[in-house]
Every structure is written in structure tokens, then in C-alpha cells.
């Protein structure tokens, strides 16, 4: 019955080099996989040193549809805060630049996924424009009258690796039995709605649910056949917010050291995607829209960027203390750039982003890396919990063509022709059309999730981090 065992031994003996190579390779794989930590191998801070296990307890959608209990008993030690955190042709491409030394753990270990170019691809978008029922009217640019469509056909191409096209069925399988939650402002809602539009294309109408939880905390999309939910929680500052009457106006008070009330809604999710930054920089030190409070102390004046860093540090400390690294994967999505000045792309007589139909073509026209992102990186590096940074800032800065501009809503109504004729006043150069750029953000997120089951062939639903890098 074929070659005998003895014959195999003889062949192997005559090919000692091959035999030794096989033995050495096998031993290397065994040793490598044995050194990957299990969910019980944690460092002194409770942080898993290399593995983030995403196999949570079963999620019961019948319970989910009935609403969640937000009365979570938690203890959050604010004393541990560190105050020292004081795209007409198919060949047309837009060159990208290296943003930060982010090393992706994937088939090409040297690939910086944020170093690349925008490539026009006629196979995009990932879902039909104007037909998704889950997008806010503000983002439905085609439905609001935009006639061009090239802005939907650009994809990001890293230089040294390929960014997988988002496969909705595969992503739902990876989300099976899990809660995924986006937390932040309208830009995070922009990305959340993009993901719902993508995933819903493969879920039968009678097998999906969309609505607000009974406790009013989050708005959710539930794919019942996959026993999973994708949710959004409004928290533009992440930290808690109160208000006070000043004259005839109400002014917000941001509690820079308080987050546990919000956190009660997030704690049991399996995948968390945060963002914050835009709302913090409204106004300046002397004329801010907000008051800032720490404990019982109300700051008479505080630089908004300083306040942002302190609030972000509170969030980071809460993540370190309250989130289980063996159960939950945490992402922070970087600052989404705006295009309110056409001087940026050497068009001084332009109307902000309005009437722009191509991305920025020259790297030199992109903005410097913002201070807010430097603050985010600094805070993330000091965390015990490994948070993955979706650093979309510079690659998005090329996309002056992708904003709603005058194809948005005001008071839930389309702009009148008179309003469209005044783009400087009514154009939206902050949010993004759907389909469009946020779909690519979700492809980046999908790439991270793929690494959970495609890392080095070892039988772990995980990824390897190595040093304390932001990846």
C-alpha cells in the first residue's frame, strides 16, 4: 500500500538536510505558538500581553430586542488619572503619504496600511447609492440631488499590501454572537451608518431589526440569523455632560473626570469603536461654548485642547480599569478632516469643498498632522489596554470631493435652490456622502478584524502586538 514506513526512513536518511529542515521548522512552529499567551496569561495590570480573545458569552437577540439593563454596578477610580497628559481615468491615482509608523500584523509584516494611494475602481461602491434605508438624510447625497458619482468609486490601496474588499457575509460571521458599538459624534454615526448599509445588503428584510433600545441608550441594527448587533451611542465628548443656564442661554458643562454613567452602556460590548475631537474645539480659551469641571472645581478658563486631553485621559483610564482585554476589542478612530478652505488645494476663489469632484491630487496640499491626533497617540501609548488606532486622518484629507456640500438637509429638508447658490453658508464640508469615504474606513476596520483569525496560522482567534505600538 504505497511506500513503506521503512522506505520513508531510508529516503529521509539519504536527505538529511531536508529532514533536519522539516524537524527544525516543526519545532519552530510549536515553540512560536506555545509562546502566544492564552486568555489567562495577563500582565500585572490585567492587560493581556499579546492576545485579544473575542469569544464572548452568547448574545441572545430576544433579550437584546427587549432592551438592555444599564444599571451596571461599577467602581471607577478617578484618582489614577495622570494630570501630566496636560480619485477620471482608471489609471488615475492620488499618492498618499506615510502618516505614522503603524506596522500591520498581517501577511506582510512590513506593511503600513496607511501608506498608499487612492485608486479609482469602477467596481465600487459596496452598495447602491440612494437606496440604503439606514443612512441619515444628511448623508444621502444622491437622494439630495448630487448627479456626479465618481466620489463613490475610490478605494484605498496600501503600497506594500492589499486592503481586502469588505465582504458583508464574512464580516457578519465574524460578528456572530457579538455586540459591536460605535461611540462618539456625528462622524462616528457617519461610519456606523455606512457599515449598516454594507451589512444590510446580505440580510433578508424579515431577519433584521433596527431601533432604539428601551432604555434610550443606543440605536441598534440586529442581524437575527447571526445573533449580533451593531449599535451607535451618542457621546461626542465621551465624558459626561451637564448644562447650566447663563442669561437666556444654556451652556454645557463638561465633566472632564466623569464617564461611568456613559460607560455602563458600553462595558458589555465585544467590539468598541470610539471617536472624539470635533466638538471639543468649538471656540477658544476666552470664548468657549463650554464650561469645564473636574470634581467640584469649575474652571474659569481652560484651553479646549487641554480639556480634550484631560477628557481623553479619563476615557483611557476607564478603559484600562473596566474593560476585559480577553473579551473586548477596542478601536479609536482618528480625527476626520474638514475642507472649509479651498486655499488648501491652491484654489483661492473656490467655495470650500463645494463643486469638487476629484480628490486632492498633490500630497503637498494635504494639511499637517493635527495636534489633536498627536494627543490621541500620546494617550493611547500610555494605556495598559491595547487600543487599535484607525488612523484615517491624512488619507481622508485627500478626499475634498467626498463631502455632502450643498447636497444635504437643513431642518430635515433639502436645500432650496437659493440656499444651494450660497454654498459658503449652507455647504457641509465636514461630514461625508454615503456611499463614499466612510465605507473605506470600514474596510480598514474589517482588515483589523481579519487579523483575528489569520495571524501566522496558529489556532487562535487573535492578533500579535509585539511591543507597545499603536496598530
From TrEMBL:
Q: Which family does it belong to?
A: Belongs to the PC-esterase family. TBL subfamily.
What is this entry's stated membrane topology? Single-pass membrane protein
Q: Which organism is it from?
A: Taxus chinensis (Chinese yew)
Its annotated compartments are: Membrane
- Residues forming the Trichome birefringence-like N-terminal domain are 110-162
Gene Ontology cellular component annotations, sorted alphabetically: Golgi apparatus; membrane
Tell me the domain of life.
Eukaryota
InterPro entries xref list: TBL, TBL_C, TBL_N
Q: Where is the Trichome birefringence-like C-terminal domain?
A: 163-447
Protein name, as recorded: Trichome birefringence-like N-terminal domain-containing protein
A single GO molecular function, which one?
O-acetyltransferase activity
Amino acid at each position: 500500500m504505497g511506500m513503506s514506513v521503512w522506505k520513508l526512513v531510508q529516503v529521509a536518511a539519504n536527505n538529511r538536510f531536508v529532514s533536519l529542515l522539516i524537524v527544525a521548522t516543526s519545532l519552530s512552529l510549536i515553540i512560536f505558538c506555545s509562546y502566544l499567551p492564552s486568555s489567562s496569561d495577563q500582565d500585572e495590570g490585567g492587560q493581556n500581553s499579546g492576545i485579544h480573545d473575542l469569544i464572548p458569552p452568547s448574545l441572545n437577540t430576544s433579550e437584546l430586542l427587549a432592551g438592555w439593563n444599564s444599571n451596571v454596578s461599577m467602581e471607577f477610580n478617578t484618582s489614577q488619572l495622570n494630570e501630566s497628559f496636560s480619485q477620471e481615468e482608471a489609471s488615475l491615482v492620488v499618492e498618499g503619504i506615510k502618516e505614522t509608523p503603524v506596522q500591520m500584523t498581517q501577511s506582510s509584516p512590513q506593511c503600513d496600511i496607511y501608506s498608499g494611494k487612492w485608486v479609482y475602481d469602477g467596481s465600487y461602491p459596496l452598495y447602491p447609492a440612494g437606496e440604503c434605508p439606514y443612512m441619515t438624510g444628511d448623508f444621502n447625497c444622491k437622494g439630495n440631488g448630487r448627479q456626479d458619482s465618481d466620489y463613490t468609486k475610490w478605494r484605498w490601496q496600501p503600497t506594500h499590501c492589499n486592503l481586502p474588499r469588505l465582504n458583508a457575509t464574512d464580516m457578519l460571521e465574524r460578528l456572530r454572537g457579538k455586540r459591536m458599538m460605535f461611540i462618539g459624534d456625528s462622524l462616528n454615526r457617519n461610519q456606523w451608518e455606512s457599515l449598516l448599509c454594507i451589512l444590510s445588503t446580505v440580510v433578508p428584510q424579515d431577519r433584521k431589526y433596527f431601533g432604539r433600545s428601551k432604555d434610550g441608550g443606543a440605536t441598534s441594527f440586529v442581524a437575527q440569523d447571526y445573533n449580533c448587533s451593531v449599535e451607535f451611542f451618542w457621546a461626542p465628548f465621551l465624558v459626561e455632560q451637564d448644562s447650566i443656564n447663563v442669561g437666556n442661554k444654556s451652556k454645557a458643562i463638561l465633566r472632564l473626570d466623569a464617564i461611568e454613567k456613559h460607560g455602563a452602556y458600553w462595558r458589555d460590548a465585544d467590539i468598541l469603536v470610539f471617536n472624539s475631537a470635533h466638538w471639543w474645539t468649538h471656540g477658544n480659551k476666552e470664548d468657549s461654548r463650554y464650561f469645564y469641571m473636574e470634581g467640584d472645581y469649575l474652571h474659569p478658563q481652560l484651553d479646549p485642547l487641554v480639556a480634550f486631553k484631560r477628557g481623553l485621559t479619563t476615557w483611557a483610564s476607564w478603559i484600562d480599569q473596566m474593560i476585559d482585554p480577553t473579551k473586548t476589542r477596542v478601536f479609536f478612530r482618528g480625527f476626520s478632516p474638514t475642507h472649509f478652505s479651498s486655499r488648501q488645494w491652491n484654489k483661492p476663489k473656490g467655495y470650500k469643498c463645494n463643486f469638487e469632484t476629484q480628490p486632492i491630487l498633490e500630497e503637498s496640499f494635504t494639511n499637517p498632522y493635527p495636534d489633536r491626533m498627536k494627543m490621541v497617540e500620546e494617550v493611547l501609548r500610555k494605556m495598559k489596554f491595547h487600543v487599535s488606532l484607525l488612523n484615517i486622518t491624512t488619507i481622508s484629507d485627500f478626499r475634498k470631493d467626498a463631502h455632502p456640500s450643498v447636497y444635504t438637509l437643513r431642518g430635515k429638508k433639502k436645500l432650496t435652490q437659493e440656499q444651494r447658490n450660497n454654498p459658503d453658508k449652507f455647504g457641509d464640508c465636514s461630514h461625508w456622502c454615503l456611499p463614499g469615504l466612510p465605507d473605506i474606513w470600514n474596510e480598514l476596520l474589517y482588515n483589523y478584524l481579519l487579523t483575528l483569525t489569520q495571524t501566522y496560522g496558529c489556532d487562535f482567534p487573535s492578533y500579535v502586538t509585539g511591543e507597545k505600538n499603536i496598530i
